[in-house]
UniProtKB/TrEMBL annotation:
Name recorded for this polypeptide: Precorrin-8X methylmutase
Family membership noted in the UniProt record: Belongs to the CobH/CbiC family.
Keyword set, alphabetical order: Cobalamin biosynthesis, Isomerase
Keyword Isomerase carried by entry: yes
SUPFAM superfamilies, alphabetized: Precorrin-8X methylmutase CbiC/CobH (SSF63965)
Source species: Ideonella lacteola
InterPro entries on file: Cbl_synth_CobH/CbiC, CobH/CbiC_sf
Lineage: Bacteria, Pseudomonadati, Pseudomonadota, Betaproteobacteria, Burkholderiales
Pfam families, alphabetized: CbiC
Length: 228
């Protein structure tokens, strides 16, 4: 049996070589870090996505984040709930299907827009409320890369309405409430999280982080199969 991932790797030898060479460059140039091996797999892929070494240091993990992600992904009962369609489109459909994961986003739904207009909130807030009403947040990997208000609302839903995502990947980018929303998420003890401190972030980073987590899950599943 191969020691390499097959589902979460590039599909051609040339593609895999380029990606692995890129990771080698990142490992060489990133400098020292305090992440464990699994966390570094996530941070390294985020650096790879943006060629920005600042994510070595800006990225922070709840102590239970990796374990929670592995449990959710390998449990075949989870889903990804995103703040914007870009995340759902960016995630690899074959990789998600391998783990039985589905994606959900409601940012452009007519009822979400109407509720945001009626209540003078953002569509992102109403989208997270709709996901919660539909029972989709519980046990989900929540990926937020665009809307700080979505992340703030998820924290509220956790604390006030008992929502229990498996993991929050909170990486909204921007200048208004972006840094503050991630600081708020990092105070959560009820639900594990991965955040990028400060203004940097974006949907691309959420996709990269989730792809890294899928890769870790495939490796863990392979190790379990070999041990059994």
């Amino acid at each position: 049996m191969s020691s390499l991932n097959t589902v979460t790797e590039q599909l051609t030898a040339a593609g895999r070589a380029i990606e692995h060479d890129s990771f080698a460059v990142i490992d060489q140039e990133a400098g020292p870090h305090t992440y464990d091996d699994a966390q570094w797999q996530v941070v390294r892929r985020m650096i790879h996505a943006n060629a920005d070494f600042d994510f070595n240091g800006l990225t922070e993990f709840h102590e239970g984040a990796i374990a929670a992600a592995m449990s959710a992904i390998l449990g075949q009962r989870s889903r990804v709930v995103a703040d914007v369609e870009m995340i759902c489109v960016g995630l690899s459909a074959p990789r998600l299907a391998h783990f039985g994961l589905t994606t959900h986003q409601f940012i452009s739904d007519a009822d979400v827009i109407a509720a945001a207009q009626a209540e003078n909130t953002t569509r992102a807030v109403q989208a997270m409320r709709k996901a919660h009403r539909g029972g989709l947040l519980d046990g989900a990997i929540v990926g937020i890369g665009n809307a700080p208000t979505a992340l703030i609302e998820v924290v509220r839903l956790i604390r006030e309405e008992g929502a229990r995502p498996a993991l929050i990947v909170g990486m909204p980018v921007g200048f208004v409430s972006a840094a503050e929303s991630k600081d708020l998420a990092a105070t959560l003890r009820e639900v594990p999280w991965i955040v990028i401190r400060g203004r940097k972030g974006g949907s691309t980073l959420v996709v990269a982080a989730i792809h890294a987590l899928l890769g870790l899950a495939e490796a863990q599943a392979r190790e379990r199969a070999l041990a059994s």
